[in-house]
């Protein structure tokens, strides 16, 4: 069973299914949220995700005038899993500490808005817009 936690370990979670596909979002919002070239996430059904501890330490920020929100640890600031849509959660891939042996980049999304310095290479298909198109 895959498990993950924030950087300080105060918040933990478990995923009750096998995980393998990583999706990397290169949109400008994800870049600013992480300070990097985007965010690598795993998308799992809500029924397969559960918090194991520290859920009371989750803080959120909603982008004004946009349908976008981020979840993070109130102590260390690590980005945390959040609602992808009504049925699924996104899980930042870098938080997985156990059970991630099968993880592999499968898709790049929002590549039309990636940073000019971001060079995408290697594994994975390029999607110009959003996951699932």
Q: Could you characterize the architecture of this molecule?
A:
With 133 residues, the chain is mainly beta. The chain has one domain: Metal Binding Protein, Guanine Nucleotide Exchange Factor, Chain A (Beta Complex), CATH 2.170.150.70. It contains 1 helix and 12 strands. The strands form 3 sheets. A 6-stranded mixed beta sheet has the order 8-9-4-3-11-12. Strands 5-2-1-10 form a 4-stranded antiparallel beta sheet, with no helix packed on it. It has a two-stranded antiparallel ribbon with strand order 6-7. A hairpin with a 4-residue loop joins strand 8 and strand 9. The longest helix has 7 residues. The mean pLDDT is 88.
State the total count of DSSP E strands: 12
Task: Kindly report the oligomeric state of this protein.
Answer: single chain
Poorly predicted segments: none
CATH architecture annotation = Beta Complex
Note the overall shape.
globular
Kindly provide the radius of gyration, computed on alpha-carbon positions and rounded to a whole number of angstroms. 14 Å
**CATH topology group:** Metal Binding Protein, Guanine Nucleotide Exchange Factor, Chain A
Number of helices: 1
Main beta sheet: strand number and arrangement?
6 strands, mixed
Strand pairing plus helix content: what structural class?
mainly beta
Range of strand content: 35-45%
Distance between the termini: 29 Å
SSE run: EEEHEEEEEEEEE
**What is the helix fraction of residues, given as a range?**
under 10%
Spatial arrangement of strands, main beta sheet: 8-9-4-3-11-12
* Whole-number total of structural domains: 1
Overall average residue pLDDT: 88
CATH class: Mainly Beta
């Amino acid at each position: 069973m895959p498990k993950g936690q924030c950087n300080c370990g105060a918040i933990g979670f478990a995923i009750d299914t096998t995980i393998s596909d990583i999706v990397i979002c290169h949109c400008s919002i994800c870049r600013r949220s992480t300070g990097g070239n985007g965010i690598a996430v795993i998308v799992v059904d809500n029924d397969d995700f559960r918090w194991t501890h520290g859920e009371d330490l989750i803080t959120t920020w909603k982008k004004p005038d946009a349908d976008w929100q981020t979840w993070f640890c109130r102590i260390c600031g690590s980005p945390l899993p959040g609602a992808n849509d009504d049925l699924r959660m996104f899980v930042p891939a870098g938080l997985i500490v156990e059970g991630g042996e099968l993880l592999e980049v499968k898709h790049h999304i929002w590549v039309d808005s990636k940073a000019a310095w971001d060079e995408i290479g290697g594994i994975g298909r390029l999607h110009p817009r959003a996951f699932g198109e």
